[in-house]
Amino acid sequence: MSDLFRSFADEGRFVILYHDVGPNLSRTNRSHFDWMFAGVDGLVTFAVVPEPWEQALAERVELSQTDVGSDRGAVRRGRWTPGMRPVPDKPLAITATRLPDHRDKYLDYEGLVSGNRGSVRRVDSGFFRQRPAGACLDIAFDDCPSMRHAHALAPETTYRRRLSFSPLPQSPSSLLAEAADQRICDLDFSEGINNAWRLELGSG
């Protein structure tokens, strides 16, 4: 099992927050998604910089399943962004930056981030469990992320997705730019650790 997967809980909740950054966030001035997973010492966290159309969706006052699911232009592109349904069956590769672990409170918290560092809002959530080999996670998305506050684990039958993680070279942009389904993070996060990772979301 890799050091990364030793950081994850065996099973638990995850949340995807849209972080609208404030002037005092030192590591980046770009708003982004924070993917956070229950871990041994806090929430294992990855930052993903959205494409412009994803950011436009995320910055809506309300990002509901109905609103985003009806965005036909985005669906036609064969893409998925947090909060969108359905998740395409074709594996989606996402380039992310691993950040230091965050406090557990962010599983349920929405609102201002202290120190004038912006605000966070939940756009997706669900449950995960580690596969025995420790190479990837089984994922179950909540049907209504904005209403999720319970801590009970998901039933067996809801784990329909798989999320795998693999490290990338520290300067992956030239390698990844050729792939049409890649979302390129600027990797300009000074507090990142083991900076660049490839997350692949696919069918379970």
List the helices and strands and how they pair.
Layout: H1 3-7, E1 11-21, E2 32-38, E3 43-48, H2 52-58, H3 65-69, H4 72-76, E4 92-102, E5 111-112, E6 118-130, E7 136-141, E8 161-167, H5 173-176, E9 196-203
Antiparallel strand pairs: 1-2, 1-6, 2-3, 3-4, 4-9, 5-6, 6-7, 7-8, 8-9
What does the model show?
It is a single chain. This protein has helices at about 5, 50-60, 65-70, 70-75, 175; strands at about 10-20, 30-40, 45-50, 90-100, 110, 120-130, 135-140, 160-165, 195-204. The chain has about 200 residues and is mainly beta. The protein is globular, with a radius of gyration of 16 Å. The two termini are about 20 Å apart.
